[in-house]
Write a structure and sequence with these properties.
Largest sheet: 2 strands, antiparallel
Shape: elongated
Number of domains: 3
Helix content: 55-70%
Structural class: mainly alpha
Distance between the termini: 88 Å
Number of helices: 9
Order of helices and strands: EEHHHHHHHEEHH
Length: 249
Amino acid sequence: MFLTALGQYGVRNLVDGTVGAVFTSGYGIFDDTVVYMTLKKAQDTLALGPGDATRIVVKFPNAEDIDRKVAAVGHALATSWSTGPLKAYSWKVFAKSLVDNLESRIRIMTFMMVILILLVIVGILNSMSMAVQERFREIGTLRAIGMNRRGLTRLFLFEGFALGLAGGLAGVVGASFLAWLGLAFGIDARGFLPRDIPIPLVSVMHPLYTWFDFPLAPLLAALVAVVGSLIPARRAGKMVIRDALGSHV
């Protein structure tokens, strides 16, 4: 096959080569447009010298604090090289459209999560209000035998906390199985990513968890349940003994 490209002086060069293999990564933008060749062949195509290169890709063991690492590489290039202005760029610069799209999706998911939490709070508020409504006589009896208003309020708040914690623990049990599946087998991202994605990703994506995610989830569920129980609990605490004992609800 013949390869043609503009050299460093703007002259179109033509070189020949033998196809060694055809690869398929699953990412259309690479399968359709990318050609892998030896460094010597690339230097001949671009009319570069033996020690010249247009770009060097640096891969870090992990992507944590990537901006600080890129800044450190840029500083090292600025202080160690005197042949020309060399700069270091993060992969986000070359995939700005993808990053912006992901950030917008994260904002949308966060907004939906807030709406979901509000709906859960309203549901718990309704359930606890019905619980107070159906326990008028029990509330009156507890007040009659000496339980004060604050203790009665704490009792309903604790009930809401216990229900939220139980629901959170049940959710963690189911989520743990899904988390194990994600960690063990992963998700093949090539099936739903667009063909023109501007950066290469791994074929199989695995979720990222930390150990405190699992105990934190039921605690947050219990906290949401307590928030939803505040108004019914205060209503139960303010109930007059005479009205509660005389209720036939």
